[in-house]
Target: ABC transporter domain-containing protein
Amino acid sequence: KVEESSESKLDPSTTDLHIEFKDVSFSYPSRSTPVLTNFSFVLHPGKSLALVGKSGCGKSTALKLLTKFLRCENESIQIDGVSLDEYDTRKWRQMVGVVSQEPCLFTGSIRENICLGRPFTHEQII
Model:
């Protein structure tokens, strides 16, 4: 089980959000071969990144690692040079936006789908 929140963890909202995957490798227990092997990238603050590839190449796994739904065996995912494990999980997930390849809209307006029940101003949404 991945830890949800802890007062002793770092607050990610105080970082510059320089994200680095450094030689990330990951295997599911049910698979004989790794999904990711020495996978690396750097995402600079304010920039976007698209993970593109064939089905099964590790795109979703990389996102699950980044959002802490899966855990790396080593500290190879870093935010501003600090292991992702050191950051509060709940606060981290609130800061990360992921656009899936499969669109999913809930009942309601586009605005309500974007806000997901949180009180955002019009300017924050745009």
